[in-house]
Design brief:
Layout lengths: L8 E3 L19 H10 L3 E3 L13 H16 L5 E3 L5 H9 L4 E3 L3 H5 L2 H5 L16 H10 L13 H18 L5 E5 L2 H14 L7 E8 H9 L4 H7 L12 H12 L1
Parallel strand pairs: 1-2, 2-3, 3-4, 5-6
Length: 262
C-alpha cells in the first residue's frame, strides 16, 4: 500500500473463476495478510465461493459465508471487506446484518436474470457466468434489498444534477477570484479528472469550469513535501491524525487532504 498504487487486494479461492487455479486454497493461511491489511486500512475484496467438487454449484456462496466469511469478519473487526458480486438472499442478509465495515457489490446480470434464463428451453451458454445465476427468489432478494436507497450517506441525485450544482459553485468562486479556469486537486488526480471529463462528455455538458487536462496531484505533492505518496503516511509525517478505518471514504479523504495542504 505504501507504493500508492495498490489500493485493495482481492481474494480468489482456487478454481472459483476464470484463471484462478493459483488462488487461495486455505483462508486460514492468509490470516497474517488479512491482519496486516486491517492495520493499514486496505480493503479486502472477496470472491465468495467454496470450490470443493462435491459441493452443488448453486450452494457455493452460502457455504462460503458459513465456513469462511463470517469467521473472517469476526476475527478481524476493523478489516474493510467488500463481498463482491453477491448472488443469493443469504449474502444480502449477511451484509445487511454485518458491521459498517462490510459491504457488497451486485452485478447487472444477477439483477436482470436467474437460472431459468440459462436453462429453461435448453442450455443457453451466453447466460453462463461466475458466480453462476441462481433461482428467481435470490434474484428478487438482490433487487429488493441489495441497494439501500435510504442510506444516510447516500443522498443520491443524478450525475448530471450533481455536476450542475458543483459547476455552479466552482464558476461562482472563479468569478469572485478573477480566474478563468479551475484546477482539479486530488490524490491521484489524473484518475479523477478522467472520470470528470467522461461524465461531462456523457451528458454533453457545456461550460465545464475545470481545465480539461491540467490538475494538481496531491500524491505527487505529498511525495515532494513529506516523502510519502500515501495519504495516511503523509498525514502521519505531518503529525495529522488519520483513522485507517475511515480511509478511502470520499468525504474523509477529502477532509484529510484539505487539512494536509490548506
Amino acid at each position: 500500500k505504501a507504493s500508492g498504487f495498490v489500493h485493495a487486494a482481492k481474494m480468489y479461492p482456487a478454481g472459483a473463476t476464470t484463471n484462478s487455479d493459483s488462488g487461495v486454497t486455505s483462508v486460514d493461511k492468509i490470516f497474517p495478510v488479512l491482519e496486516a491489511m486491517a492495520e493499514v486500512g486496505m480493503p479486502l475484496l472477496v470472491h465468495g465461493e467454496v470450490t470443493r467438487p462435491e459441493i452443488d454449484v448453486f450452494d457455493r456462496e452460502k457455504l462460503f459465508i458459513d465456513e469462511h466469511l463470517r469467521r473472517v469478519v469476526e476475527r478481524f473487526p476493523t478489516l474493510k471487506v467488500v463481498f463482491e458480486h453477491i448472488t443469493t438472499a443469504e449474502a444480502v442478509q449477511f451484509v445487511n446484518e454485518a458491521p459498517a465495515n462490510v459491504g457488497a457489490t451486485i452485478t447487472a446480470q444477477h439483477l436482470l436474470y436467474n437460472r431459468n434464463h440459462m436453462l429453461v428451453g435448453g442450455i443457453r451458454p451466453h447466460f453462463y457466468c461466475l458466480p453462476i445465476l441462481k433461482r428467481n427468489t435470490h434474484q428478487a432478494a438482490l433487487d429488493f434489498t441489495g441497494i439501500k436507497l435510504d442510506h444516510p450517506l447516500r443522498m443520491a441525485v443524478s450525475e448530471e444534477s450533481a455536476l450542475t450544482d458543483i459547476f455552479r459553485g466552482v464558476r461562482k468562486a472563479l468569478k469572485a477570484n478573477g480566474c478563468k479556469r479551475a484546477i482539479l486537486v486530488g490524490h491521484n488526480s489524473s484518475f479523477d479528472l478522467g472520470f470528470l471529463n467522461a461524465a461531462v462528455a456523457r451528458h454533453d455538458m457545456k461550460r465545464n469550469p475545470f481545465h480539461p487536462f491540467s490538475s494538481f496531484d496531491t500524491a505527487t505533492l505529498a511525495g515532494l513535501a513529506y516523502g510519502q505518496t500515501v495519504l495516511a503516511r503523509a498525514c502521519q509525517s505531518a503529525d495529522i491524525d488519520f483513522d485507517g478505518r475511515e480511509a478511502h471514504s470520499a468525504r474523509y479523504d477529502t477532509e484529510k487532504t484539505a487539512e494536509l495542504f490548506c
